[in-house]
């Protein structure tokens, strides 16, 4: 049977099955790349990366000196970034004359953030400057994670599953809404 021939109850069941498949065995590399691109773009926008506003998620060339090495949506989501943020590649962050850079490192549960002091500064940076910067970077990381989770939920959500069922003539269902394997 085709999707539009199913009862409402069977359609709901079919959508539940399709959502599970979209999140697992039907989740393709392009889907994963779009989630990754969304995370990087949201992070880039949050830190004010140069030229981020000139691109969209799919064609943004990335952040100079920063690389995404992985991501996860489990347990609230994680993004694994490596590289260095500076006033040049992250101008929206709360830089002071005494802060030099922020080092991002992929660790077991996400991204480690280490704020570096400018060694040329005649006076050391107060702890408050380190805390403010670390919080701002963590907020930007969280923005990227949230955007990635939203993209994943869209790609595996009810609306997308219904669209997939309605527009994919290669899928057949039994009267209960279970997919019949060909």
Summarize this structure briefly:
By secondary structure, the protein is α+β, with helices and mostly antiparallel strands. The chain has one domain. 41% of the residues lie in helices and 20% in strands.
Structural description of this entry:
With 182 residues, this protein is an alpha+beta fold. It contains four helices and six strands; from the N terminus they run H-H-E-E-E-E-H-H-E-E. The strands form two sheets. Strands 1-2-3-4 form a four-stranded antiparallel β-sheet, covered by helices on one side. Strands 5-6 form a two-stranded antiparallel ribbon. Strand 1 (66-72) and strand 2 (78-85) form a beta hairpin. The chain is elongated and about 75 Å long.
Sequence-ordered SSE layout with sheet pairings:
Elements: H1 8-23, H2 29-47, E1 66-72, E2 78-85, E3 99-107, E4 110-117, H3 127-155, H4 158-167, E5 172-173, E6 179-180
Antiparallel strand pairs: 1-2, 2-3, 3-4, 5-6
Helix pairs in contact: 1-4, 2-3
Fill in the keyword field for this structure.
alpha+beta, four-stranded antiparallel β-sheet, two-stranded antiparallel ribbon, 4 helices, 41% helix
Quaternary: single chain
- Structural class comes to alpha+beta
Q: Quickly count the domains.
A: 1
- Give, in spatial order, the strands making up the sheet with the most strands: 1-2-3-4
Sum up the overall morphology in one term.
Answer: elongated
- The ordered H/E elements are HHEEEEHHEE
């Amino acid at each position: 049977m085709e999707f539009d021939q199913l009862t409402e109850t069977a359609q709901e069941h079919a959508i539940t099955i399709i959502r599970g498949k979209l999140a697992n065995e039907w989740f393709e590399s392009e889907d994963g790349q779009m989630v990754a691109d969304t995370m990087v773009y949201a992070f880039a926008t949050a830190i004010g990366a140069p030229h981020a506003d000139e691109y969209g998620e799919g064609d943004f060339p990335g952040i100079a000196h920063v690389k995404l090495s992985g991501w996860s949506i489990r347990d609230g989501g994680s993004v694994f970034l490596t590289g260095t943020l500076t006033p040049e590649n992250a101008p929206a962050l709360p830089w002071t004359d005494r802060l030099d850079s922020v080092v991002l490192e992929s660790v077991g549960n996400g991204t480690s953030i280490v704020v570096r002091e400018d060694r040329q500064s005649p006076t050391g940076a107060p702890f408050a400057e380190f805390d403010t910067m670390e919080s701002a970077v963590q907020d930007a990381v969280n923005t990227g994670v949230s955007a990635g989770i939203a993209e994943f939920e869209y790609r595996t959500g009810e609306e997308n599953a219904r669209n997939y069922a309605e527009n994919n003539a290669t899928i057949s269902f039994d009267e209960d809404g279970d997919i019949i394997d060909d």
